[in-house]
Amino acid sequence: MPWILLLIAGLFEIVWAVSLKYTDGFTRLLPTVGNFLALLVSISFLAAAARSLPIGTAYAIWTGIGAVGTALVGCLLLGDPSSFPRFLCMGFIAIGVIGLKFT
Fold it and tell me: From CA 89, how far away is CA 56, in angstroms rounded?
């Protein structure tokens, strides 16, 4: 169960990170409220998962999911630069996250 909580936390980290683009520097009310709600959900699920998992592992996996997920959303949906080296580096992060899960 803590791994599912951590996955949910990571997915909401992607949501709040991507939603930063739409807050326009926290000047747009609805995207800003959505951003803060997603951040609150993400941190809450991380805290719940960290009750059972080592904090270093939980935090590294949470940030890894967020980093790779946000980078992928940026490349695939938001027009961020896409290149083989970028995707290769995202793959290395994903391998590290998977490695932490199994060690």
Answer: 21
Using CB atoms within 10 A of its CB, is residue 45 exposed (0-12), middle (13-18) or buried (19+)? buried
Give the separation between CA 94 and CA 89, rounded to whole angstroms: 9
Give the confidence band of 103 by pLDDT, cuts at 50, 70, 90. confident
Report, as an integer, the average pLDDT of 53-57: 93
Q: Is the pLDDT assigned to residue 21 strictly greater than 90?
A: yes
Pick left, alpha or beta for residue 81 (phi over 0 → left; psi -120 to 50 → alpha; otherwise beta): beta
Q: 64: Cβ–Cβ under 8 A, 6 or more apart, which residues?
A: 10, 93, 94, 96, 97, 100
